[in-house]
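> call design_seq(struct)
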């Protein structure tokens, strides 16, 4: 095993530890780790990330379920359109994208630039969501659903997830609070279940049918990440996760700039 691969699997462990410590955000690093340390192309990197994100979110979501924080009805209502969105994009849209999307003179705007550029752009609001202190505002009244907006939001989040291979928790959590009148702590827990099912089903209904998957590599990488979750959960008994969360938010900013630099400067 080469040094770069060892570093890559170490990063997979770190992804899990961050998820266990701060409850989210770490899986957004899966795509850059796969792309730059394992030289996985953009289609496979986003596909593998969906599986890794889904498996990690499922573990986290089940932990929250046993604490009684998951609203399963809301998870189904929000999750169904998101599952449709991600599955359609992964099965039909991503395989149909050409290597070069368009040319401006001698400049070629490639599929990789589009997918990784969008991914890096969305890392900024994801980082902001980690830096922002969530207010535990008490919700008055019963859970209610704005079905038209939920359908649109679910399809859009699913489509974005399908294109970039990230969970999109920073989009889902505010939507649960605003569109379903769900308390913040319930929204955070329920979002993990939504992320898990839309990511895993998007992968199995889309990528598993259209790509050649290296199941051994994917299983090993995901296993390191899952082990890291339990390590992170244990370390959370001794470490202040809120302070780490802000530090990790700044790190995501740096990673976003790094991806832009690699794709639009180095690879030109």
């Amino acid at each position: 095993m080469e040094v770069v691969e060892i570093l890559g699997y170490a990063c997979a462990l770190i992804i899990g530890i961050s998820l266990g410590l701060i409850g989210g955000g770490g899986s957004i690093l899966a795509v850059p780790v796969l792309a730059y340390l394992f030289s996985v192309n953009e289609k496979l990197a986003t596909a593998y990330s969906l599986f890794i994100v889904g498996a990690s979110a499922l573990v986290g979501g089940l932990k929250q379920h046993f604490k009684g924080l998951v609203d399963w009805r809301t998870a189904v209502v929000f999750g169904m359109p998101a599952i449709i969105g991600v599955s359609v994009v992964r099965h039909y849209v991503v395989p149909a994208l050409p290597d070069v999307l368009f040319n401006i003179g001698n400049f070629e705007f490639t599929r990789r630039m589009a997918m990784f550029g969008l991914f890096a752009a969305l890392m900024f609001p994801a980082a902001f969501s980690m830096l922002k202190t969530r207010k535990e505002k008490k919700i008055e009244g019963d859970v209610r659903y704005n079905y038209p907006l939920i359908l649109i939001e679910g399809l859009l989040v699913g489509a974005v997830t399908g294109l970039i291979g990230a969970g999109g928790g920073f989009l889902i959590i505010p939507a649960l609070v605003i569109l379903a009148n769900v308390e913040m702590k319930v929204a955070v827990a329920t979002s993990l279940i939504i992320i898990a099912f839309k990511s895993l089903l998007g992968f199995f209904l889309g990528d598993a049918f259209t790509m050649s998957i290296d199941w051994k590599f994917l299983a090993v990488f995901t296993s390191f990440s899952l082990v890291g979750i339990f390590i992170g959960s244990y370390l959370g008994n001794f470490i202040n996760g809120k302070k780490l969360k802000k530090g990790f938010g700044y790190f995501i900013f740096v990673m976003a700039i790094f991806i832009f630099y690699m794709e639009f400067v180095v690879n030109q």
